[in-house]
Amino acid sequence: MNYASALAYLRSIDLTMVRYERSHFDAFVKDKGLSLKVPFIHIAGSNGKGSTASFLYRSYLAAGYKAALFSKPFLYEEKEMISYLGRDIADEVFASYVEKMKGDFQKYSLSAFEALVAVAYTYFNDVKPDIAIIETGMGGRLDATNIEGAIPVLSIVTSVSLEHTRFLGDSISSIASHKAGIIKNDVPLLMGEVPFEARKVLEIEARKKNSPAKGVSNVQNVHYESPYLSFDYGPYRNLLIPSMATYLAIDAAMAIEALLMLRLSFPVSERALREGLMKGVLPCRMESHPPFIFDGAHNPEAAQALAASLSAALPKKPVLVFASFKDKNVAEELKILAPAFEEIHLTTFAHKRAMGRSDFAYKGVHYPFDDDVSSLVSHLLTKWSDRRIVFAGSIAFASYARKLFGGEEI
Q: Of 146, 83, 88, whose CA–CA distance to 113 is shortest?
């Protein structure tokens, strides 16, 4: 099996937003004895978990640790989800693990995400990093990254908002209950800025598990002056992130607090922390390539964060090009985004779950729609030569637009 055939196989078993239960994966885990046998930090959350994970990963690398990262979603190819020493897993190594484990994946009818977790954990056990950062896919309690017997050194819940309600429930407390599934006995818990109902659920679970719970402190003096976002947190002043996304300050604060909580076991210098913030910004988080901005906002909470960041960073209202998945609450997202934009245009993209014209209409969204994003953007560049054009609605769409209009060497 080569790399191309490994990707083709994984994509053939992709059950994203189709199946969300544990019976197949638990049988596989029990039979194969799958676990994660290295120190790791487990991160769940509706928003911010990817950036928090990346800031942690880059800080530990800067401090000289052999660090590993499992994160979701990927932008272009599945191997991006598995990283060690600052590099994605090599094509041939990735393919070899898939080939070796494919028979068991088929035997237990694993989904692509479950298979990728199995590949990542087996690979990490083999290379033996000093510490791994593990990001959940969805929820926490039923997430494939959450394996009995694999005990983290720290659990983090970055945020809780209404998302994936078909699988996680239609209330903040229900969704928080899923996130709380990563809390383990006697393992510290770090919470981000979560609603009261969510905090209550998380704290009750933490008490049951004798898990010392701590919330992130207030971020101070957040200010954007091109090309840096600056802020103060805890003992640190004038921390810098090369981004206009003011919402990244809270994600960075989560990472800093985690570093402080683990400083006795994994000390990190201020120099390494600052380097981690400089190198940890992920693509499609208000990623700027004038006149374009690419952002993965995909739910109401993320839409609010994007709108606030744009208002703080730009002198004139930008134009929005928006595409999303069929399961998203696009009416609420666009209601939140509308005041921050001069115009809003809808489009679609090549993905089996992407919304089309009729899907937007069904959800009561009636902004202008154009299924040819290239011609739409050409028109907008002429009409709005003095404005930025923002692509948002999902990470998948933002990465698609980034490839078309922003280039890949970023």
A: 146
Under CATH, which architecture does the 3-279 domain have?
3-Layer(aba) Sandwich (3.40)
Helical H segments across 42-193, by residue range: 49-62, 91-107, 112-127, 165-168, 172-179
**Residue given tokens 């054009």 in the structure block:** 389
* Tokens encoding 97: 């693990």
The rounded distance, in Å, linking the Cα atoms of 143 and 149 is 14
Domain map (residue ranges) of the chain: 3-279, 287-406
Q: What is the CATH number of domain 287-406?
A: 3.90.190.20
Burial of 277 (0-12, 13-18, 19+ CB in 10 A): buried
For the chain, count helices (H), then strands (E): 15, 16
Sign (positive or negative) of CA dihedral 370, 376, 379, 385: positive
Digit-coded pLDDT (tens) for 47-63: 999 999 999 999 999 99
Q: What are the φ and ψ backbone dihedral angles of 88, each rounded to 5 degrees?
A: -60, 150
Per residue in 99-150, pLDDT (tens digit) is: 999 999 999 999 999 999 999 999 999 999 999 999 999 989 999 999 999 9
- 254-300 per-position pLDDT tens digit: 999 999 999 999 999 999 999 999 999 999 999 999 999 999 999 99
ω into residue 291 within 30 of 0, thus cis? yes
CA distances for 373 relative to 12, 306, 401, angstroms: 27, 21, 9
* Report field, pTM of the whole predicted structure over 0.90: yes
d(Cα 99, Cα 191) in Å, to the nearest integer? 39
Which CA distances in Å does 101 have to 15, 79, 89, 97, 114? 18, 16, 16, 6, 12
Q: Looking up tokens 């998380």, which residue turns up?
A: 202
